[in-house]
């Protein structure tokens, strides 16, 4: 009987009452494991580039200014918040934060740039703590390409300190 | 069983069967002489009554100097997935088309031609399928010598797509892209005679993203699952796990049991959000928004649950080769059980109301017909096939993860119309709840990821079927060097189901078009940005992130 079905359907609605949340007027805390924007810890990062090599969205650039200075740049444009960077980081330098309200028309609001001072070694020109974390990652089945020939590394040294690697992108809205 | 099938083929075709690889009692690879591909496929499809799954091409020239074509079939009752392999010369590759005898192969063969330049000789409808209209002829992006980021010269934006002639007496009505009731980028050119659709031409692949190319050129084994998850906004976890399974199957990686159970649970949680969503959408498409809202309300706690377990409502980021990334704590298990109990009782009410609702029934009965014969010819899968009484379900037929350790019923219905699909999907919700409960009872302790200590072997073929909410997803991978696959092919259920649409809507009313198509869930992503213009003065203001946030929090703005 159709009329009975309609009554049943009305009952479902009445029982449920109003369920819409008043977001964005009130925000609700996110669950503990929530994966929001990744945040880099300047102090912990050793510049191994594991995160850059494993980011499926290719959102992290590694830029060697000279032998001692390596710049890590998180672009924040098409990051999918998958959290792979945080997974593979051998130093736990990346946290998947609880930030998800990322609407902005200034992309630098989301970007992060780390200037890393690298130790040098006479043999390879670079030193990592202990045995290379890249080796460890590779053993776990992750790809760890030859950085010097890698697609992330832009060899240009035409930057002055304090100059952004990428020009900031302000999104122009049509009037 | 597998060797019996092989023997049958050998007896019938003798030396045309060149070589076989019996992987185990569920997988079989048979190399054949390409000249006999037509009779062999006909025999397998008609006489041995196999189900056609997909055809896959691969450029193997850097390794063997040849092109490869795989025709994938399945024997569902015997639990066998089965691959016919043809090796074609590296120069001017051609193969006899099987679309004449297996209509379901139509798109796959056109794709071979577009992406790899393998000519399906004698194809009944050899039109371009995947490549954009502006793409110049003779450039095949899936060939190994075509760089992933290359844009070929001669990209001709002016080039028009040549539609077929409109049949006499018919008017062509464009449906999509972005039709008000189906906001998905695909175009149907309907040939309409009065109220009735007499035929249609499909033009799709407008959001083709080249992910298969990326996987074999830029990304690595553990990057691809994250990308595969974005193939679809609804069956994301399905695709990412299917990729993992295909690689694991090829490379012989054994997944730890706890990870298998977690995979099963998350796949079912995905089904639990998808089915209520689709039932809601089906109601919406026939103009019944009350139930649409209620179905979505009932689904919402499942999304919160997924967020608690995996850190995201929808893109779970669960799979990596050899295991999973997230674990279940005892608290999470208790919470999940509570959510399931609530869902079960609320969904029971919906089912009780909908299953007797004469209005919904009237709008969906006899609409979008797909009977058993059509399912066989076009390779239709999932609720579409089950709604037509075809008893297939990859979870039972080709078990993966922990599905061989749980009991569940495969729901079928015999009306073969949209109503049948509504019933199937409504009732499958209870089966999913049941499966998750069993998984919690049986889940062992142990590691989450297999210990992979060496590089995965290259050149192995792996394939797997996995039951997405919409039907069987079939993933195929050839493992490769540099920690990335040499070839990966993802066949989503819609790839086959969409090919059945012209037959499903033929001689039906144009008003039923959207509900016939309704099994395809629309998903859109958008990012809103904001700029304000004072109308009186014309002054513009751009808002910073902090300002936007505080504005959105205050009710005054
Ligand atoms: S969260 Fe994922 S997409 Fe974003 S930077 Fe990290 S690895 Fe890349
Ligand atoms: S993986 Fe960690 S330590 Fe290595 S570069 Fe990235 S943030 Fe730094």
TrEMBL record, chain A:
The keyword Metal-binding appears for this protein: yes
KW 4Fe-4S (keyword) present: yes
Pfam families: Fer4_7 (PF12838)
Cellular component annotations (GO), alphabetically ordered: membrane
Assigned keywords, A-Z: 4Fe-4S, Iron, Iron-sulfur, Metal-binding, Repeat
Cross-referenced InterPro entries: 4Fe4S_Fe-S-bd (IPR017896), 4Fe4S_Fe_S_CS (IPR017900), NADH_quinone_OxRdtase_chainI (IPR010226)
Transmembrane segments: none
4Fe-4S ferredoxin-type domain: residues covered: 36-65, 69-99, 112-142
SUPFAM superfamilies the record matches: 4Fe-4S ferredoxins
Any one biological process term the GO annotation gives: aerobic respiration
Any GO molecular function: 4 iron, 4 sulfur cluster binding
Protein's name in the database: 4Fe-4S ferredoxin, iron-sulfur binding domain protein
Species: Pelobacter propionicus (strain DSM 2379 / NBRC 103807 / OttBd1)
UniProtKB/TrEMBL annotation, chain B:
Family annotation (SUPFAM superfamilies): HydB/Nqo4-like, Nqo5-like
Keyword Oxidoreductase attributed: yes
Sequence ranges assigned to domain NADH:ubiquinone oxidoreductase 30kDa subunit in this UniProt record: 30-149
InterPro entries, per the entry: ComplexI_49kDa-like (IPR052197), NADH_Q_OxRdtase_suD (IPR001135), NADH_quin_OxRdtase_su_C/D-like (IPR037232), NADH_UbQ_OxRdtase_30kDa_su (IPR001268), NADH_UbQ_OxRdtase_CS (IPR020396), Ni-dep_hyd_lsu (IPR001501), NiFe-Hase_large (IPR029014)
Keywords assigned: Iron, Magnesium, Metal-binding, NAD, Nickel, Oxidoreductase, Transport
Positions bound to Ni(2+): 232, 235, 523
Cofactor(s) it depends on: Fe cation; Ni(2+)
Binding site for Fe cation: 235, 526
Keyword NAD assigned: yes
Name the record gives this protein: NADH dehydrogenase subunit C
UniProt organism field: Pelobacter propionicus (strain DSM 2379 / NBRC 103807 / OttBd1)
């Amino acid at each position: 009987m159709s009329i009975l079905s309609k009554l049943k359907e009305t009952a479902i609605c009445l029982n449920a009452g109003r369920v819409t949340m008043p977001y964005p007027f009130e925000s609700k805390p996110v669950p503990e494991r929530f994966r929001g924007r990744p945040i880099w810890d300047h102090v912990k990062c050793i510049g191994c580039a594991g995160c850059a090599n494993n980011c499926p969205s290719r959102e992290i650039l590694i830029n060697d200014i000279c032998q001692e200075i390596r710049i890590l740049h998180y672009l924040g444009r098409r990051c999918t918040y998958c959290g792979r960077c945080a997974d593979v980081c051998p130093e736990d330098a990346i946290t998947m934060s609880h930030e998800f309200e990322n609407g902005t028309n200034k992309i630098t609001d989301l970007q992060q740039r780390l200037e890393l001072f690298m130790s040098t070694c006479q043999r390879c020109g670079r030193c990592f703590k202990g045995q290379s974390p890249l080796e460890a990652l590779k053993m776990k089945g992750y790809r760890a390409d030859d950085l010097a020939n890698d697609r992330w590394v832009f060899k240009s040294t035409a930057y002055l300190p304090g100059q952004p690697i990428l020009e900031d992108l302000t999104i122009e809205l049509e009037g | 069983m597998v060797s019996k099938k092989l023997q049958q083929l050998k007896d019938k075709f003798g030396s045309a069967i060149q070589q076989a690889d019996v992987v185990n009692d569920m997988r079989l690879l048979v190399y054949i002489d390409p000249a006999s591909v037509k009779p062999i496929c006909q025999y397998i499809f008609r006489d041995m009554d196999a189900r056609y799954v997909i055809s896959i091409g691969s450029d193997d020239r850097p390794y063997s100097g040849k092109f490869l074509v795989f025709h994938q079939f399945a024997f569902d009752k015997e639990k066998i997935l089965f691959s016919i392999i043809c090796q074609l010369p590296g120069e001017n590759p051609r193969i006899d088309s099987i679309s004449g005898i297996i209509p379901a192969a139509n798109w796959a063969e056109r794709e071979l031609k577009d992406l790899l330049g393998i000519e399906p000789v004698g194809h009944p409808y050899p039109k371009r399928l995947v490549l954009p209209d502006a793409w110049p002829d003779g450039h095949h992006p899936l060939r190994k010598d075509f760089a992933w980021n290359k844009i070929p010269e001669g990209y001709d934006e002016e080039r028009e797509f040549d539609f077929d002639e409109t049949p006499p007496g018919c008017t062509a009505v464009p449906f999509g892209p972005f039709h008000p009731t189906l906001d998905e980028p695909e175009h149907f050119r309907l040939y309409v005679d009065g109220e009735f659709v007499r035929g249609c031409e499909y033009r799709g692949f407008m959001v083709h993203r080249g992910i298969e190319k990326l996987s074999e050129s830029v990304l690595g084994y553990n990057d691809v699952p994250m990308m595969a998850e974005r193939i679809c906004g609804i069956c994301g976890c399905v695709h990412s796990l299917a990729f993992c399974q295909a690689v694991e199957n090829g490379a012989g990686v054994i997944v730890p049991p706890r990870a298998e159970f977690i995979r099963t649970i998350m796949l079912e949680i995905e089904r639990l959000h998808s089915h209520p969503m689709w039932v809601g959408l089906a109601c919406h498409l026939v103009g019944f928004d009350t139930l649409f809202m209620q179905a979505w309300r009932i689904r919402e706690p499942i999304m919160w649950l997924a967020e608690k377990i995996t850190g995201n409502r929808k893109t779970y980021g669960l799979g990596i080769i050899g295991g999973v990334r997230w674990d279940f704590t005892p608290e999470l298990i208790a919470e999940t059980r509570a959510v399931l109990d609530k869902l079960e009782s609320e969904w029971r009410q919906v089912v009780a109301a909908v299953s007797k609702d004469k209005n919904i029934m009237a709008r969906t009965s006899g609409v979008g017909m797909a009977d058993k014969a059509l399912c066989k010819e076009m390779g239709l899968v999932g609720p579409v096939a089950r709604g037509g009484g075809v008893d297939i379900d990859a979870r039972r037929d080709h078990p993966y993860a922990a599905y061989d350790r749980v009991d569940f019923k495969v729901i079928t219905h015999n009306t073969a119309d949209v109503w049948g699909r509504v019933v199937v999907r409504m009732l499958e919700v209870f089966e999913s709840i049941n499966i998750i409960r069993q998984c919690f009872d049986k889940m062992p302790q142990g590691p989450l990821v297999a210990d992979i200590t060496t590089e995965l072997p290259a050149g192995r073929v792996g394939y797997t079927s996995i039951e997405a909410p919409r039907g069987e997803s079939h993933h195929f991978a050839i493992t490769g060097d540099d920690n990335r696959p040499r070839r990966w092919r993802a066949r989503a259920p819609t790839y086959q189901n969409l090919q059945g649409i012209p037959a499903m809507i033929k001689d039906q009313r144009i008003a039923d078009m959207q509900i016939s198509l309704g099994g395809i869930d629309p998903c859109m992503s958008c990012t809103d940005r904001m700029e304000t213009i004072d109308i009186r003065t014309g002054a513009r203001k751009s808002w910073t992130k902090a300002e936007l946030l505080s504005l959105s929090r205050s009710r005054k703005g």
